[in-house]
Design a protein that fits this description.
Chain lengths: ~230, ~210
Amino acid sequence: MNETSHGTRWGRTAVAALPALVCAGGIGAAVGSGALAAGLQVQGGSLEFATSSLYGTQFGAAVVEQATSSTTAGGAPGSVHVLRLGFADGLLDGLCLSQEQTIGGLPFTLTITLGDKNPGTWEVRTQNTVLDLTSVTGTLDMDGLVDLNINGPDVTTVTDSTGAFVPDPLGSSENRFGIQAHYAKFDQVTGTVQDIQIPGLLQTPAIGISVQPGNVPCPTPPAPTGTP
Amino acid sequence: MRAGRPRRSGAAAVALSLLGVCLLPGSSAAARPGRHLAAAVLPGEPTPMGVPFLPSSTPLHITIAAMVANQMTVQNNVTIRLADGSTVTTTRYTFVKLQISSNMAVTQSVNGYTLHINVPSNGSLGGLDTAGNAETTVMWGNISNICVTVIFQICGVQGLLNALGSIIPLTAGAQNFVGDIYAIQTTDDHAALSSTNNPVHLPGSLAVSTP
């Protein structure tokens, strides 16, 4: 590979990544001036996900059918089933999201990180977090009253602007699997998500967005230390 | 599964949108007490019966290679209502301090998806609360097999009831649990933020597959 091809590749990459980089600049400015409260939405297909721990109250989960950009063999809109997790109030102990992309036939990885890299701080605070999982490994602890196989639409978790529980907050259909618990802690989570949405409060001491050549997965998250 | 596949749509396909960026006073999730969380019954849905919530009408198929519990009690002929409005007469099992010793697999295949929950080693469906009390785990459904070795191996819920009486001790362990369970509820009356005594402890994997 010669120098010219490197230059051409990164020019295309920079253009393609412009929306993310603009957002990074905006977030960075806010972080630099103190606590950040923002909404975050990352979607667009399968994302690799890693966190040392996700801890939250008013936890709910339900199987949801989510539309994709693909089509079936018959031409109908494609869809994929996910386990949608909702936390009304949440703490994240670091977060890494990455997605491999191909531009001009060359692979690169877009990576978004939140947090301070300290596994004992649970430093990222969120409200009304929604996470769509397709396959993850980790340790899920649930506490309080824990219901398994609850009808998906009956799960209560996230709240509206008045603080009231939103009916069918996860958008599940009748007769789908659901979970509900007062508290949940999901440690050393790695896997694949379809999207992540934090429409409410988001506070983090640091955020990073990078574009790197090749396939650069999120590092394996360390085990959390202490309690949230 | 689409994990790890390169996408050709470019970085712009990842839509990172800031819905609002503003500076707000700090607000700690851990500082706010959790409100009581109860399952909703939406307009048009039937009223729960026999179970505190409406379970999905497709039971979870659960296998556990080895488990330990302080005890199990059995209540037959319990009628419960499912999310599709139908009722089914089944069995209610109550476990005290139910621990998974080896390999729990939970699957549910329905409506175009298969859910997989796997705990390959130790786990828990009910531990100790912060006051040191054993927690209870209630299952509604049908346990088609469970084996306990008391000098010789006894299998099946009815066999255990015949041999051990109405309160079945499982402190020495049980094996080969197989059940189709409509609903599970575990209760920790002393749950609290920052508590690490969690009744449900599932180290393993979660996956949803679409054919």
